[in-house]
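EI: anyone free to look at a 107-residue chain?
SC: sure, send it
EI:
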Amino acid sequence: MAYQNTLHIYTAIESLSNQMLSAAQKEEWDKLIELEKDCALHVQKLKYYQNVLPLSKDLQEQKRLSIQRILENDSQIRDLVSPQMASLSALISSTQNGKKLSSKYNE
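SC: here you go
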């Protein structure tokens, strides 16, 4: 049934978000990227099943709790990834500035 597929997908996304959080905590960035790709595929499936059938109150509550846990994981992942992204951004900026400086001296 479509509503079971919807809840199954939310549960799968929640499981992936738990794995993503664990990967971020361990600084396993390649694993995190692969898990993000899997998560994106599940989100695409969810878009298909989302509005097929309305959920009962109990199933809506399960969905709400799952979404809440996904969002909590996402917040923690962002907190862990933000410093890494800032470092990467600084490195890219430094490299770009170095290339500009080098090209000026080579003119």
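EI: The mean pLDDT is 85.
SC: 👍
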